[in-house]
Specification:
- This protein is an alpha+beta fold and about 140 residues long.
- The protein is built from 2 helices and 8 strands.
- It has one domain.
- Helix content is about 15%, strand content about 30%.
- The strands form 2 sheets. Strands 3, 4, 5, 6, 7 and 8 form a 6-stranded antiparallel sheet that branches.
- The longest helix has 17 residues.
- It is elongated.
- The N and C termini lie far apart (about 45 Å).
Length: about 140
């Protein structure tokens, strides 16, 4: 049952992976910040400040098994700090690190070059009547 393999029952996709709501795990996710909004990047991670990998100045780096400290979980949605339990409990999907980086870069590009696009305003519902058609 806990193998994480997805199965199909009729037209419904059933995941057999266990997702314990009270035990967040480091991961990359995509979530929606508002009803009808676009997918945005979210992650749960540990940032370590140990002397083994951070050097003498304890520079921040991703936590590894060889670190001499076990830091608390941290989380962010669209680059803004959030509670890890909120991100874990938020309805969303696990994604790869590459997809996470794409969503972050797409948001930054939209804010800079397409401020009227839904990606630049992820908390607003998408109004398909006001979006210009794509130009090829």
């Amino acid at each position: 049952m806990g193998s994480g393999v997805a199965a199909r029952e009729g037209n419904i996709r059933v995941s057999t992976a266990t997702h314990q709501i009270d035990k967040p795990q480091p991961c990359f996710r995509r979530v929606k910040e508002g009803k009808g909004g676009v997918w945005v990047a979210a992650r749960i991670h540990r940032t370590c400040h140990c002397t083994i990998h951070g050097g003498d100045d304890n520079a921040p780096h991703p936590w590894r098994m060889s670190c001499d400290r076990y830091p608390q979980l941290e989380a962010d949605i669209n680059g803004k700090p959030r509670d890890p339990y909120l991100v874990w409990a938020t309805r969303g999907e696990k994604i790869s690190e590459g997809h996470y980086l794409y969503l972050i870069d797409d948001r930054e590009h939209a804010v800079r070059y397409r401020p009227e696009s839904p990606e630049a305003n992820p908390r607003q519902p998408v109004d398909f009547n006001s979006i210009p058609p794509p130009q090829f």
